[in-house]
Amino acid sequence: MKVLIAAAVVTLALPVFLDGKQLGIYVLAGLAAMVTVGLSLLMGQAGQISLGQASFYAIGAYTAGLLSVHGTAPVLGLLAAPVVAAAFAAVVGAGVLRLRGHYLAFATLAMQLILLSVLAQSTWAGGAIGLQGIPRLSVGGFELAEDIQYAYLVWAGLAVVLVVAHNLVRSRPGRGLRALATSEVAAAASGVPVGRYRLAVFTLSAAFAGLAGGIYAFYLGYLGPGSFPVLLSIEYVVMAVVGGLGTLAGGVVGAVAIVLLVQALNELATSPGMPSYAPSVLSYAVYGLLLVVVVLWLPRGIVPALRGKERT
Amino acid sequence: MTDLPGYLVTGLGTGCGYALVGSGLVAVYRVTRVVNFAQGAFAVVGAMCAASFLTALPHGLGELAAVAVAAVVGLLVGMVALATDPRSALIVTLGLSVFAYAVEVLVWGDQPRSFAGLPGAVTIGDARVQSHYLLVIGVTLPVFAGMALFFTRTGTGKALTACASNPYAAKVIGIDVRRMGWLAFAIGGALGGLAGVLVTPVQQITFDADVTLIVNGFAAAILGGLTRPAVTLAGGLLLGVTQALVAGYGNAAHQTDVALGLMIVVMIWRAAQRQTRGPVEEPV
Q1: Do the domain assignments include residue B283?
Q2: B4-32 and B210-222 helices cross at what angle (nearest 10)?
Q3: Which of A256, B107, B188, B196 has its CA at 20 to 30 Å from residue B149's CA atom?
Q4: Given phi > 0 = left and psi -120 to 50 = alpha, else beta, which region is B146?
Q5: Residue B12: domain span
């Protein structure tokens, strides 16, 4: 609890001391953490993997963007973002989630490929050029124009996500989910409605991603299909796996660690004397190696490994 | 209507590529229960190697060498992936295929690659079709027939099938299950490499083409529950022909969407079937 309060105070105070570029990183890390907490729940608690989590991020972003471009109050757009993303997840998940194994992984991956190609071809969504001129988020007459305000918006968003997720983990469905991640047959035999709980956590993870996407749309003011590549979905998997599956802190720590690491690598790769392909090669290599190394040698991720050390 | 035979042939040709990628998935999944995400990367490695080798080697030899390299890559991926349990192995192979991006961009750059295939074109119906499509079909079908013979008639093939149906019993009678897993990955690598080598002359390939290949390959394999090579072939051909027809009579931009949508529908249909049968283990 002390750690939690300390983390909350530090992250609340932090934006005041950051300059423009660092604020941008703060916002991106917070948004990534919101998505990763959901994915970590899905992978750790429900034992399912989504390779298309960025598509829910995209759906949330486009929902908020399209609604506010067409004159809806931006706040309503932001509220609609998680709802629409969750609805998409419910439709796809309803059928596929009853299957075990890796069906959801490929269904979500296919969903993202379809979504990207549809977005790129739809004039109503701005096509390949993207959606431009998204207004800033405003509540009542108060407009969020400064980056630091978005930093606090992201902080609040992540807080909401964590509170909801925490309550889910501690509730009866949460215990049922953990049982089902260990042994589906035993959970089903003990009366856990396996399919329904799985669908619920998948939908919830999509809602988290959708909310993050909504904030992203107002923060950037521009959306294009290129902002949501398949690699982004894989990045979320890396973050969740590195942080530690199924733990809330793991999602946050993993996301922040990877965002900072990628930032450092970008600095390194764009320094003078490096070839033009260095940034992409370095980030691919690091994502790939991290996934393999963590799964093989640190299968529970950073956060549980650190906690285990504390106890012994 | 007279365009139809042409569309069918190009569709079957593309479908053969998906079927080969899918059968690589099946070969690995049957024996190890691992869904190998790096299967698409094998195809990319095979295609890129072929493009490089063909600058020095004659046709035939260059392609074969590329398939051999893909098989070795498959073996290496298998050695890493089988160090963990099948569920985590998907994430490991995902990591390896992202790592492969780094290597591919370093070695071959990030521009699309292609090389010359069988030259010329034939007239089928009213449409001119590149004769290379016929070569693709002509190579793929014997490969599937050969695989069927290998799995049912040879000692090694039977050992692989034994691991597939009951690993414990296979171990008891002295089959080295781990080594069979590695062999399965090498076979998967070769099949993936063959897909890349065959399809590249008619469809350029980039380092990140593996995502489309693996999703389509998975779609082909899923029809047979990831365990039946013959159904995978049928699934791949169905997928390829559907795409060609959508591109020919509808909008080329939507060809992949339709095929992927079809895959999701098939998965939901299979889920519904399982639902009516109850949650029993799939008899694989």
Answers
A1: no
A2: 80
A3: B196
A4: alpha
A5: 4-277
- CA-closest candidate to residue A180, choices A199, A200, A198, A204: A198
B94/A96 CB distance under 8 A: no
The pLDDT tens digits of the residues spanning A198-217 come to 888 899 999 999 999 999 99
- Please indicate, yes or no, if residue B169 is contained in any of the structural domains: yes
| Residue A166 burial (CB count, 10 A) | 14
Q: What is the largest CA-CA distance in chain A?
A: 62
Report the alpha-carbon distance of residue B202 to residue B194 in Å, rounded. 14
Q: What is the ipTM of this complex?
A: 0.85
Residues A92, B264: C-beta atoms closer than 8 Å: yes
Tokens of B73: 């890559």
Q: Does B258 touch chain A (CB under 8 A)?
A: no
- Give the total number of structural domains in chain B: 1
In this structure, what CATH number is given to the domain that contains residue B34?
Answer: 1.10.3470
Q: Cα separation of B227 and B249, whole Å?
A: 33
- Quick check: is B284 in a domain? no
For A134, which DSSP code?
P
Whether B32 and B187 have beta carbons less than 8 Å apart is answered as no
Q: Is residue B56 part of a domain?
A: yes
Contact (CB, 8 A) for A110 and B219: yes
State the burial class of residue A275 (Cβ atoms within 10 Å of its Cβ: 0-12, 13-18, 19+). exposed
Residues of B in contact with A290 (CB under 8 A): 95
Contacts of A153 (CB under 8 A, 6+ apart): A137, A144, A215, A219
The Cα–Cα gap between B30 and B86 comes to 12
Give the type of residue at B235: G
Whole-model pTM? 0.88
Check pLDDT > 70 for residue B138. Answer: yes
Could you tell me which of A194, A212, A213 has the C-alpha nearest to residue A202?
A: A194
Among B94, B109, B256, beta carbon nearest to A291: B94
Confidence of residue B282 (pLDDT cuts 50, 70, 90): very low
Tell me whether residues B83 and A296 touch, CB distance under 8 A: yes
CA distances from B162 to A210, A272, B71, B144 (A): 46, 57, 22, 19
The answer to whether B106 contacts chain A (CB < 8 Å) is yes
Report the DSSP pairing between strands B127-130 and B121-124: antiparallel
